[in-house]
Amino acid sequence: MQDIKNTEAQTVEDISELKKVRVEKLEELTAKGKNPFEIVRFDKNASAKEIFEKYSEYEGKKVAVAGRLVSKRVMGKASFCHILDGSGKIQGYFRRDDMGEEAYSEFKKLDVGDIIGIWGEVFTTHMGEISIKVDSCTLLSKSLLPLPEKFHGLKDPDLRYRQRYLDLIANPEVRDTFVKRTKIVSAVREFLDSEGYLEVDTPVLHTVPGGANARPFITHHNTLDIDMYMRIATELHLKMLVVGGFEKVYEMGRIFRNEGMDTKHNPEFTTVELYSAYQDYNDMMDIAERLICFCAEKVGGLEITYQGTPVSLKRPWRRITMIDAVREYTGLDFEKEEVSELIKKARSQGANIKDGLSWGSALYECFDQLVESKLIEPTFVLDYPVEVSPLAKKKPSDKRLTERFELFITAREMANAFSELNDPIDQRERFKAQMEARAAGDEEAQMMNEEFVTALEYGLPPTGGLGIGIDRLVMLLTDSPSIRDVLLFPTMKPVK
């Protein structure tokens, strides 16, 4: 039986020799006027999935199916193979008496990995496997390199991420992950469209990066002779559209941040940001719950398991202020104790916090380092300090805090939302504070954005804004441990 070879176990010499043999087969075919690369199309009329799901309709009928040859077992005058198409695998049964001597001989020379089209009758073998009794077989593309091992899958993560096409061939569950990703993305759009939001496109290249605290990628525009930045958020342009009268807008788009890489971070990733005039962060909590539950229902349901931990997405989700969360999980009371004492106590619990931080910065660091990792069930953490929320409106009851929340599920931030700051005077002062932090060495602090402040001066209505990380949402709903598992082509360091 000829099966897919294990790419990981093969030496460079092995692969080179196999490629040489396959090239020779291609040259032989070309000499006979049968170069497969000259074929421009194949009229397929069925898929593996359709045949399995509607067998009663297909039994005894002739079908044309095309896909990749992923296994082959030659037994004299009869042979079996499996063909993998975009929907799954189906067995082909090849007999010399049905195909003719020459055609059967050509089939036996095919290699695992070749892409073929077959024509034949749908039937069930004596072993009970739905199959196609092949009358004719056409080589549509010659595979010159061996493919990953069939039964155990391609395991080397570096090779899987670099050559995702091999991963998709070898590992059916990977295909399923990306099918679910597409369904989730479609569900987000379906939900927001039904809520009356208008999908828009905003620039990827910015003259001033803004909308988040992050380090940007820098490029250069030759004609204008200026440096430009790949966007780190879609926020500011979307809020300008609200100023312009679009009361409900959203954008699903790629974001670029020149930061570290780990299981939760890739330099480019996908978010959806939405803004609704005359609403606040309480409304955004409601829509975040409903949107994520809507997506979950599309791909499996509200009771999920993430990396062995059961999680319920049933509403309502927990809501807790940052002050209360820090108090509950650490015993540190930011409403009663002095900041210097709180910092000392936080260090005793393992936090790495510098002396001299402001009240708000110390609160945030305590939460970030001591609490976030404990938030497994869906939890909205509310009322972030002003120092870390330059675009959020201050709480009327406590000017040290803002009307901002982040949503955490399985100890990961899934969403970020504000009652948007619409006071241009306050916004300018916040940008100035960010510029001071930047001058002091914080490369992620925001720059002054005069264009955005000018837009606010024309008047932004009270607005609620929400951003959700699509990649992390897909990770959650597909039980994927790394962001690289849900990006078809994650960023990788080039191989030298």
Overall description:
This protein is α+β, with helices and mostly antiparallel strands and 496 residues long. The protein contains 16 helices and 21 strands. It has helices at residues 12-31, 48-53, 55-58, 96-99, 101-108, 157-162, 164-170, 172-194, 235-243, 281-299, 322-330, 339-348, 359-370, 424-439, 450-457, 470-478; strands at residues 2-3, 62-75, 78-85, 88-95, 115-124, 130-141, 198-199, 205-206, 218-221, 226-230, 248-256, 268-277, 303-306, 309-312, 318-321, 379-382, 394-395, 398-402, 404-409, 412-419, 463-469. Strands 7-11-12-21-20-19-16-15 form an 8-stranded mixed sheet, with helices on both faces. A hairpin with a 4-residue loop joins strand 9 (218-221) and strand 10.
Protein topology:
Layout: E1 2-3, H1 12-31, H2 48-53, H3 55-58, E2 62-75, E3 78-85, E4 88-95, H4 96-99, H5 101-108, E5 115-124, E6 130-141, H6 157-162, H7 164-170, H8 172-194, E7 198-199, E8 205-206, E9 218-221, E10 226-230, H9 235-243, E11 248-256, E12 268-277, H10 281-299, E13 303-306, E14 309-312, E15 318-321, H11 322-330, H12 339-348, H13 359-370, E16 379-382, E17 394-395, E18 398-402, E19 404-409, E20 412-419, H14 424-439, H15 450-457, E21 463-469, H16 470-478
Helix pairs in contact: 7-8, 8-10, 8-16, 11-13, 12-13, 14-15
Short description:
The protein has helices at residues 12-31, 48-53, 55-58, 96-99, 101-108, 157-162, 164-170, 172-194, 235-243, 281-299, 322-330, 339-348, 359-370, 424-439, 450-457, 470-478, and strands at 2-3, 62-75, 78-85, 88-95, 115-124, 130-141, 198-199, 205-206, 218-221, 226-230, 248-256, 268-277, 303-306, 309-312, 318-321, 379-382, 394-395, 398-402, 404-409, 412-419, 463-469.
